[in-house]
From TrEMBL:
Originating organism: Brassica rapa subsp. trilocularis
Domain (SRP54-type proteins GTP-binding) ranges: 85-240
Protein name: SRP54-type proteins GTP-binding domain-containing protein
Keyword Coiled coil part of the UniProt annotation: yes
Keywords, ordered alphabetically: Coiled coil, GTP-binding, Nucleotide-binding
Pfam families noted in UniProt: SRP54 (PF00448), SRP54_N (PF02881)
Gene name linked to the record: A02g504190.1_BraROA
Coiled coil location: 206-265
Domain Signal recognition particle SRP54 helical bundle residue range list: 2-87
Length: 301
């Protein structure tokens, strides 16, 4: 579906809503359904459509709108605001999304072509509390990109988004500039978001990147689990070895204790036997001496 047909269907949905006599929740939902169908037929991802509907309904709260408000105008402004959000706003949303996921993002404004680009990025980044880098005097986008990326690498930012120019009538210059920026900063991903019509590609790239990151995180977790299992196994073996050594020490102590006990008993028996022998020897010596005395007395007679 070409952009003209898509624009015609969106305009038709808004016209139907405007023709209604009373704009209520039912009319708003029907209008959003027609716009959603048109965008889905243009290959815009469903999660992006659901996000768009939720954002519009947050802006347009029909129950809270007073009677004097122009509901048609408020709804149209909310729809066009969501459909026409530019790349700078998208960069900020992208950074804010990953900030909520635990990353440390940063924004670099390399758009030196559009007046007020740095002011817009600074305003968006300040609201989202995301660090940013840019220059009011430097006109060379590659230099700004390199300086900004180097600055945030030193601050350990793990997601650095470089917002480049989004010129349409100078596509050759634009893509050459983006190529130079990508080579100079060694960017891992390059997303072209010149208008909301390209948001479908951005969503697809973002989804693919999330899948890749999820796969990497899954592999990392699996490796962590494997390493943890190895550590547990080593600890178990060390504990078993330690228990074995402790058991052997106890056994050796028991054996040595038994040996010492046996040696004590043997020594005791040995000394008792020696004492018995000494007693017998003493008795034998006394008898022998008496016999010698008797023999001497007999000789005198």
């Amino acid at each position: 579906m070409v952009l003209a047909e898509l624009g015609g269907q969106i305009a038709s949905a808004l016209q139907k809503m405007s023709n209604g006599t009373n704009i209520d929740e039912k009319v708003l939902n029907e209008c959003l359904k027609e716009i959603t169908r048109a965008l889905l037929h243009s290959d815009v991802s469903f999660p992006l459509m659901r996000e768009m509907q939720n954002n519009i309904k947050k802006i347009v709260n029909l129950e809270e709108l007073a009677a004097g408000h122009n509901k048609r105008q408020i709804i149209e402004q909310a729809i066009f605001s969501e459909l026409c959000a530019g790349k700078t706003t998208t960069c900020t949303k992208y950074a804010y999304y990953h900030q909520k996921k635990g990353y440390k993002p940063a924004l670099v404004c390399a758009d030196t072509f559009r007046a007020g680009a740095f002011d817009q990025l600074k305003q968006n980044a300040t609201k989202a509390r995301i660090p940013f880098y840019g220059s009011y005097t430097e006109s060379y986008p590659v230099k700004i990109s390199v300086e900004g990326v180097d600055t945030f690498k030193k601050e350990n930012c793990d997601l650095i988004i470089v917002d480049t120019s989004g010129r349409h009538k100078q596509e050759a210059t634009l893509f050459e500039e983006m190529r130079q920026v990508a080579e100079a900063t060694e960017l891992e991903e390059s997303l072209g978001i010149p208008r909301q019509s390209m948001k479908m590609q951005h969503a697809q790239n973002r989804e693919e990147m999330h899948v890749k990151r999820d796969a990497k995180e899954h592999n990392f977790q699996r490796l962590q689990q494997q390493e943890h299992a190895k550590v547990v196994d080593i600890s178990k073996r060390a504990w078993e070895f330690s228990s074995f050594i402790e058991f052997q020490e106890k056994e050796m102590k028991n054996i040595m204790g038994e040996r010492e006990k046996k040696m004590a008993e043997m020594n005791k028996r040995y000394f008792e036997e020696m004492l018995d022998l000494e007693r017998e020897f003493d008795v034998f010596g006394a008898v022998h001496d008496q016999e010698r005395l008797n023999d001497a007395d007999d000789a005198d007679y």
